[in-house]
């Protein structure tokens, strides 16, 4: 399924948690949406999560054995589905087909168009991109000599510009 839309998908990866991925993504999303772009974020929660609250109708439907529950409100929806196997990123990307840019967070091994986030004291001794040529860019709080674009950890504007340019989108 990867085609011209795949250049509108970016995976923020890091060697470990607490590298600053979520904070950077939050800033980049604000910048991109302020430019009129529609952005989806697909987050890999490796430790699991629970969207539902005990006692609520959707929770009760799950407890009763429903395989899929969809919550629909006036301005948003949520899908809760039991999984027999982990869906591929292609399958997940299909859920976000109506946006301009898709950002993946936490899919270290399966991500595409990877942007590495490296923070001193949290990400190990050296960036992954020094040994992994699949990274498009490095975002770090310290300088490294790399053959790919490098952005300061506080340069969310520069990262957003890079994404827009790589995606072939105009700066709105």
Structure description:
The relative contact order is 0.25. The chain is 23% helix and 23% strand. It has four helices and eight strands. With 172 residues, the protein is of the alpha/beta class. α1 crosses α4 (156-167).
List keywords for this structure.
172 residues; alpha/beta; six-stranded parallel β-sheet; two-stranded antiparallel ribbon; 8 strands; 23% helix
SS summary, helix count: 4
Query: Poorly predicted ranges (pLDDT <50, ≥5 residues)?
Result: none
How are the strands of the largest sheet arranged?
2-5-1-6-7-8
> From the alpha-carbon coordinates, what is the Rg to the nearest angstrom?
18 Å
Oligomer: single chain
Which whole number gives the mean pLDDT? 85
Please report which band the strand proportion falls in: under 5%, 5-15%, 15-25%, 25-35%, 35-45% or over 45%: 15-25%
Largest sheet: 6 strands, parallel
Give the distance, in angstroms, between the N- and C-terminal Cα atoms.
27 Å
């Amino acid at each position: 399924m990867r085609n011209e839309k795949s250049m509108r998908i970016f995976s923020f990866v890091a060697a470990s948690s607490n590298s600053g991925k979520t904070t950077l993504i939050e800033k980049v999303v604000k910048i991109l949406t302020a430019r009129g772009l529609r952005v989806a974020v697909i987050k890999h929660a490796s430790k699991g999560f629970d969207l539902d609250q005990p006692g609520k109708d959707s929770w009760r439907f799950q407890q009763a054995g429903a395989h899929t529950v969809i919550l629909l409100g006036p301005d948003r929806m949520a899908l809760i589905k039991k999984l027999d196997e982990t869906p591929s990123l292609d399958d997940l990307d299909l859920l976000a087909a109506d946006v301009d840019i898709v950002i993946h967070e936490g899919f270290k091994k399966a991500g595409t168009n990877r942007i590495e986030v490296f923070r001193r004291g949290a990400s190990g001794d050296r960036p992954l991109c020094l040994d992994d040529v699949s990274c498009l860019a490095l975002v770090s709080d310290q300088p490294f000599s790399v053959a790919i674009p490098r952005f300061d950890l506080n340069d969310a504007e520069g990262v957003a510009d890079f994404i827009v340019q790589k995606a072939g989108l105009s700066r709105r």
